[in-house]
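One-letter codes give the sequence; the fold follows as tokens. An example follows:
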Amino acid sequence: MSQDTFNSHGEHPLFWTGVTGKERYQAIKDIETCVGEYGFITEFKQFSDLDMNICIEVETVKLKALFKALELVIHLDQDESTVNSAKDSQIVYLHLSFLKGRGNLTTEVPAVPG
């Protein structure tokens, strides 16, 4: 089977890996702010409080700016990627690891009156 069989977001996405020592909520907020300036998050999966995957769609012309903005809030493990400039937009899969995670994700549920 070809890779495209499994790729529902188009051909040849980019794969970035990041690490942060920030608290999980703050890191996610910072990433959302960065991505919101240059593109948008189409999907995310949180596996625990240790890591998550984020699918980002961004216009190709804004890709380098997104990379540089993300570098200011998290440590990215690679250099800027080569992109297909013939495409209008690009899909980026960002795998993010949280150094302060403990492996037991807990989600606070707000108290609802009544």
In short: Helices lie at 3-6, 24-38, 63-73. The chain has one domain: 12-98. The first strand starts at residue 14 and ends at 20. Residues 1-9 have pLDDT under 50 and may be disordered.
